[in-house]
Write a structure and sequence with these properties.
The chain is mostly helical. It has eight helices and no strands. It has helices at about 1-40, 45-70, 70-100, 120-140, 145-155, 160-170, 175-200, 205-219.
Length: about 220
Protein backbone atom coordinates (compact mmCIF):
# COMPACT_ATOMS: atom_id res chain seq x y z
CA UNK A 1 0.00 0.00 0.00
CA UNK A 2 2.83 2.41 0.87
CA UNK A 3 4.66 1.53 -2.37
CA UNK A 4 1.49 2.07 -4.45
CA UNK A 5 0.86 5.39 -2.75
CA UNK A 6 4.44 6.49 -3.38
CA UNK A 7 4.15 5.51 -7.05
CA UNK A 8 0.92 7.48 -7.34
CA UNK A 9 2.50 10.58 -5.78
CA UNK A 10 5.43 10.18 -8.18
CA UNK A 11 3.10 10.17 -11.19
CA UNK A 12 1.28 13.25 -9.90
CA UNK A 13 4.56 15.08 -9.38
CA UNK A 14 5.71 14.17 -12.88
CA UNK A 15 2.52 15.50 -14.44
CA UNK A 16 2.58 18.62 -12.24
CA UNK A 17 6.20 19.39 -13.13
CA UNK A 18 5.45 18.86 -16.82
CA UNK A 19 2.53 21.28 -16.55
CA UNK A 20 4.68 23.95 -14.88
CA UNK A 21 7.53 23.66 -17.38
CA UNK A 22 5.16 23.53 -20.34
CA UNK A 23 3.27 26.56 -19.02
CA UNK A 24 6.47 28.60 -18.91
CA UNK A 25 6.75 28.20 -22.67
CA UNK A 26 3.12 27.92 -23.78
CA UNK A 27 0.21 27.09 -21.51
CA UNK A 28 -2.03 26.69 -24.58
CA UNK A 29 0.20 24.07 -26.21
CA UNK A 30 0.43 22.24 -22.88
CA UNK A 31 -3.36 22.30 -22.50
CA UNK A 32 -3.85 20.98 -26.04
CA UNK A 33 -1.43 18.11 -25.43
CA UNK A 34 -3.07 16.98 -22.20
CA UNK A 35 -6.59 17.44 -23.60
CA UNK A 36 -5.83 15.08 -26.47
CA UNK A 37 -4.17 12.60 -24.13
CA UNK A 38 -7.24 12.58 -21.89
CA UNK A 39 -9.26 10.74 -24.53
CA UNK A 40 -6.59 8.05 -24.74
CA UNK A 41 -6.12 7.70 -20.97
CA UNK A 42 -9.27 8.95 -19.18
CA UNK A 43 -8.17 7.23 -15.96
CA UNK A 44 -5.52 9.96 -15.68
CA UNK A 45 -7.97 12.86 -15.96
CA UNK A 46 -7.23 14.17 -12.48
CA UNK A 47 -3.49 14.18 -13.17
CA UNK A 48 -4.14 15.92 -16.51
CA UNK A 49 -6.29 18.48 -14.68
CA UNK A 50 -3.49 19.22 -12.20
CA UNK A 51 -1.01 19.71 -15.07
CA UNK A 52 -3.33 22.02 -17.02
CA UNK A 53 -4.22 24.08 -13.94
CA UNK A 54 -0.53 24.55 -13.13
CA UNK A 55 0.33 25.40 -16.75
CA UNK A 56 -2.47 27.99 -16.80
CA UNK A 57 -1.48 29.32 -13.36
CA UNK A 58 2.19 29.82 -14.22
CA UNK A 59 1.03 31.98 -17.15
CA UNK A 60 0.01 34.73 -14.71
CA UNK A 61 3.38 35.39 -12.99
CA UNK A 62 5.13 34.81 -16.33
CA UNK A 63 2.97 37.54 -17.87
CA UNK A 64 3.70 39.82 -14.93
CA UNK A 65 7.46 39.38 -15.32
CA UNK A 66 7.30 39.99 -19.06
CA UNK A 67 5.41 43.25 -18.58
CA UNK A 68 7.82 44.28 -15.81
CA UNK A 69 10.66 44.22 -18.33
CA UNK A 70 8.98 46.67 -20.73
CA UNK A 71 6.55 48.62 -18.53
CA UNK A 72 7.17 48.42 -14.80
CA UNK A 73 4.53 51.01 -13.95
CA UNK A 74 1.79 49.01 -15.66
CA UNK A 75 3.06 45.82 -14.03
CA UNK A 76 2.45 47.37 -10.61
CA UNK A 77 -1.10 48.34 -11.61
CA UNK A 78 -2.03 44.80 -12.72
CA UNK A 79 -0.07 42.88 -10.07
CA UNK A 80 -2.87 42.40 -7.50
CA UNK A 81 -5.49 40.64 -9.69
CA UNK A 82 -2.83 38.65 -11.55
CA UNK A 83 -1.24 37.38 -8.33
CA UNK A 84 -4.66 36.59 -6.84
CA UNK A 85 -5.50 34.41 -9.86
CA UNK A 86 -2.09 32.75 -9.65
CA UNK A 87 -2.45 32.05 -5.92
CA UNK A 88 -5.96 30.69 -6.41
CA UNK A 89 -4.72 28.40 -9.19
CA UNK A 90 -2.05 26.97 -6.92
CA UNK A 91 -4.62 26.32 -4.17
CA UNK A 92 -7.00 24.59 -6.60
CA UNK A 93 -4.18 22.44 -7.99
CA UNK A 94 -3.16 21.52 -4.42
CA UNK A 95 -6.75 20.49 -3.68
CA UNK A 96 -6.77 18.06 -6.61
CA UNK A 97 -3.29 16.83 -5.70
CA UNK A 98 -4.11 15.95 -2.08
CA UNK A 99 -7.72 14.83 -2.52
CA UNK A 100 -8.09 11.05 -2.00
CA UNK A 101 -8.27 9.22 -5.30
CA UNK A 102 -7.84 5.71 -6.66
CA UNK A 103 -4.29 4.74 -7.54
CA UNK A 104 -2.86 5.52 -10.97
CA UNK A 105 -0.53 3.32 -12.95
CA UNK A 106 3.09 4.38 -12.68
CA UNK A 107 3.88 3.19 -16.20
CA UNK A 108 2.30 6.16 -17.95
CA UNK A 109 4.79 8.18 -19.98
CA UNK A 110 4.46 11.77 -21.13
CA UNK A 111 4.76 12.96 -24.71
CA UNK A 112 3.99 16.63 -25.28
CA UNK A 113 4.19 18.91 -28.27
CA UNK A 114 7.37 20.99 -28.44
CA UNK A 115 6.47 24.62 -27.64
CA UNK A 116 10.03 25.76 -28.39
CA UNK A 117 9.92 24.83 -32.11
CA UNK A 118 10.67 27.29 -34.91
CA UNK A 119 7.08 26.90 -36.15
CA UNK A 120 5.75 28.04 -32.75
CA UNK A 121 8.10 31.04 -32.74
CA UNK A 122 7.01 32.11 -36.23
CA UNK A 123 3.36 31.64 -35.33
CA UNK A 124 3.78 33.80 -32.23
CA UNK A 125 5.50 36.52 -34.26
CA UNK A 126 2.62 36.58 -36.76
CA UNK A 127 0.00 36.60 -34.01
CA UNK A 128 1.83 39.35 -32.13
CA UNK A 129 2.11 41.55 -35.24
CA UNK A 130 -1.56 41.02 -36.08
CA UNK A 131 -2.77 41.83 -32.56
CA UNK A 132 -0.50 44.89 -32.34
CA UNK A 133 -1.98 46.20 -35.60
CA UNK A 134 -5.54 45.32 -34.51
CA UNK A 135 -5.08 47.13 -31.19
CA UNK A 136 -3.74 50.29 -32.82
CA UNK A 137 -6.49 50.32 -35.46
CA UNK A 138 -9.22 49.77 -32.85
CA UNK A 139 -7.94 52.60 -30.64
CA UNK A 140 -7.43 54.97 -33.58
CA UNK A 141 -10.71 54.43 -35.41
CA UNK A 142 -13.09 53.10 -32.74
CA UNK A 143 -11.74 54.73 -29.59
CA UNK A 144 -10.37 53.03 -26.49
CA UNK A 145 -13.89 52.18 -25.28
CA UNK A 146 -13.75 49.22 -27.68
CA UNK A 147 -10.46 47.97 -26.28
CA UNK A 148 -12.07 45.36 -23.95
CA UNK A 149 -13.60 43.65 -26.97
CA UNK A 150 -10.21 43.61 -28.70
CA UNK A 151 -8.58 42.31 -25.51
CA UNK A 152 -11.06 39.46 -25.17
CA UNK A 153 -10.83 38.42 -28.83
CA UNK A 154 -7.05 38.71 -28.87
CA UNK A 155 -6.72 37.01 -25.48
CA UNK A 156 -8.51 33.98 -26.88
CA UNK A 157 -5.48 33.50 -29.13
CA UNK A 158 -2.56 34.67 -27.01
CA UNK A 159 -2.36 36.49 -23.66
CA UNK A 160 1.26 37.61 -24.17
CA UNK A 161 0.58 39.34 -27.48
CA UNK A 162 -2.34 41.44 -26.24
CA UNK A 163 -0.38 42.31 -23.08
CA UNK A 164 2.57 43.69 -25.05
CA UNK A 165 0.26 45.44 -27.53
CA UNK A 166 -1.68 47.22 -24.78
CA UNK A 167 1.55 48.10 -22.98
CA UNK A 168 2.91 49.58 -26.21
CA UNK A 169 -0.25 51.65 -26.68
CA UNK A 170 -0.08 52.91 -23.09
CA UNK A 171 3.54 53.95 -23.43
CA UNK A 172 2.64 55.79 -26.65
CA UNK A 173 0.09 57.80 -24.67
CA UNK A 174 -2.95 56.36 -26.47
CA UNK A 175 -4.63 54.94 -23.35
CA UNK A 176 -4.42 55.50 -19.60
CA UNK A 177 -2.44 53.28 -17.25
CA UNK A 178 -5.51 52.00 -15.40
CA UNK A 179 -7.33 51.16 -18.63
CA UNK A 180 -4.26 49.38 -20.00
CA UNK A 181 -3.84 47.26 -16.86
CA UNK A 182 -7.54 46.35 -16.84
CA UNK A 183 -7.44 45.17 -20.44
CA UNK A 184 -4.33 43.06 -19.92
CA UNK A 185 -6.03 41.28 -17.01
CA UNK A 186 -9.16 40.87 -19.15
CA UNK A 187 -7.12 39.34 -21.96
CA UNK A 188 -5.41 36.91 -19.58
CA UNK A 189 -8.79 35.86 -18.17
CA UNK A 190 -10.17 35.32 -21.68
CA UNK A 191 -7.16 33.18 -22.51
CA UNK A 192 -7.78 31.07 -19.41
CA UNK A 193 -11.36 30.33 -20.42
CA UNK A 194 -10.26 29.63 -23.99
CA UNK A 195 -8.24 26.72 -22.62
CA UNK A 196 -11.44 25.44 -21.02
CA UNK A 197 -13.11 25.56 -24.44
CA UNK A 198 -10.21 23.62 -25.97
CA UNK A 199 -10.65 20.90 -23.35
CA UNK A 200 -14.41 20.83 -24.02
CA UNK A 201 -13.92 20.31 -27.75
CA UNK A 202 -10.79 18.14 -27.77
CA UNK A 203 -10.63 16.42 -24.38
CA UNK A 204 -12.52 13.95 -22.23
CA UNK A 205 -15.74 15.11 -20.57
CA UNK A 206 -14.53 14.25 -17.07
CA UNK A 207 -11.42 16.37 -17.58
CA UNK A 208 -13.66 19.24 -18.68
CA UNK A 209 -15.76 18.88 -15.51
CA UNK A 210 -12.64 19.03 -13.34
CA UNK A 211 -11.39 22.15 -15.11
CA UNK A 212 -14.77 23.87 -15.28
CA UNK A 213 -14.89 24.10 -11.48
CA UNK A 214 -11.21 25.04 -11.23
CA UNK A 215 -11.24 27.78 -13.89
CA UNK A 216 -14.48 29.34 -12.67
CA UNK A 217 -12.90 29.67 -9.21
CA UNK A 218 -9.72 31.16 -10.69
CA UNK A 219 -11.69 33.51 -12.95
Amino acid sequence: MVVARSAHIGVQREFGLTGLIGGLASSTVTTLSFARRSKESPELNREFAIAIILASTIMFPRLLLQIAVVNQQMMLHMAVPILIMAGTGILVAAYYYFRPHEQTSENETLTLSNPFSLKSAITFALVFASILMLTRLAITYLGDAWLPLVSVISGLTDADAIAFSVSNAQQAGLISLDWAAFNVVLGATANTFMKLFLVLTLGHRELFRHLLVAFVIIG
